[in-house]
TrEMBL record:
<feature type="domain" description="HTH merR-type">
    <location>
        <begin position="10"/>
        <end position="79"/>
    </location>
</feature>
<dbReference type="InterPro" id="IPR011256">
    <property type="entry name" value="Reg_factor_effector_dom_sf"/>
</dbReference>
<dbReference type="InterPro" id="IPR009061">
    <property type="entry name" value="DNA-bd_dom_put_sf"/>
</dbReference>
<dbReference type="InterPro" id="IPR047057">
    <property type="entry name" value="MerR_fam"/>
</dbReference>
<dbReference type="InterPro" id="IPR000551">
    <property type="entry name" value="MerR-type_HTH_dom"/>
</dbReference>
<keyword id="KW-0238">DNA-binding</keyword>
<protein>
    <submittedName>
        <fullName>MerR family transcriptional regulator</fullName>
    </submittedName>
</protein>
<dbReference type="GO" id="GO:0003677">
    <property type="term" value="F:DNA binding"/>
</dbReference>
<dbReference type="GO" id="GO:0003700">
    <property type="term" value="F:DNA-binding transcription factor activity"/>
</dbReference>
<dbReference type="Pfam" id="PF00376">
    <property type="entry name" value="MerR"/>
</dbReference>
């Protein structure tokens, strides 16, 4: 081929790279490893690609989006055929379904985190109110350690591991259950159980031992100063419930709304204490 003459209907490497919206170095790499070679190489070493190779590039790009290694792509292209292409498309269809399901779960997780964070931002320290909740789903694990941080951290890690073993990754931070009668004194409080609250979409994991709590009313109070003020809030919640005409329940839920992801220290965490209540006489 005349070195100065451009083959009609072909693209230079730069032009083809623009068409594919990639850098020229990407095409050089694909040429080097043998998955997309230029259709024509001039006497001067210039590379030229045809428009028909654009579909090949799109196939490579699609496979890469599905995290397939370049070695797999090269093997497919070296033995391509209508039947192998059909098989590839069928595999793609399954992989895309998996990707869609993963992205839908991720969107649910993000939306859950947003709701929790927004509530934490709205929270005002010491504010008390009644909250009516729909049916909720929890995983509980019994806590038998002391109130020492080392015991609690070990138990929290074990609880989280239990959830992960059951493929449960909740947007809610692991919380603690405290008995309302003997779970605290004037110096400290102790968890009876650790728990993870689930979104309804995650509630079909029967083997995880999920507990369903029916719709009910809670008296809730917020601490925007971490866990230290919680001890004084147990009695406040009980008194508020009785003054509002409700009978306090037998346990408190301690939920962390804002933690180290968005707060610099334990003392600045936002914690929500909830006490299930029922109308007196019911």
């Amino acid at each position: 081929m005349n070195a100065k003459k451009r083959p009609e209907g072909y693209f230079t490497t730069g032009e083809f790279a623009k068409l594919c919206k990639v850098k020229k170095q990407t095409l050089f790499h694909y040429d080097h490893i043998g998955i997309l070679k230029p259709e024509i190489i001039g006497d001067n070493g210039y590379r030229y690609y045809s428009i028909f190779q654009f579909d090949t590039y799109n196939t490579i790009s699609m496979l890469k989006e599905l995290d397939m290694p370049l070695s797999y792509i090269r093997n497919y292209l070296s033995g391509r055929s209508p039947s192998s292409f059909l098989k590839l498309l069928e595999e793609h269809d399954r992989l895309v379904d998996d990707k869609i399901a993963e992205l839908q779960w991720l969107k649910t997780f993000i939306n859950g985190k947003r709701r929790i964070t927004e509530e934490g931002i709205r929270a005002r320290h010491g504010s008390i109110r009644l909250e009516h909740r729909p049916r909720e789903y929890y995983i509980f694990t019994k806590y038998s350690g002391s109130s020492e941080e080392t015991d609690e951290y070990t138990a929290f890690a074990g609880h989280i591991s239990h959830c992960h073993q059951n493929q449960i990754y909740s947007p809610y931070v692991t919380g603690g259950l405290i008995y309302a009668e003997n779970g605290y004194d004037d110096k400290d409080y102790r968890y009876s159980h650790l728990y993870t609250k689930l979104d309804p979409e995650d509630a079909d994991y029967g083997e995880a031992g999920i507990t369903i709590i029916p719709p009910r009313t809670y008296a809730v109070i917020y601490s925007t100063e971490g866990f230290s003020p919680i001890l004084s809030m147990f009695t406040q919640l009980k008194d508020f419930a009785r003054e509002s005409g409700y009978t306090p329940g037998s346990y408190f839920f301690e939920d962390v709304l804002l933690d180290s992801v968005s707060r610099p220290s334990l003392e600045s965490y936002t914690v929500k204490l909830g006490l299930p209540v029922t109308k007196a006489g019911e």
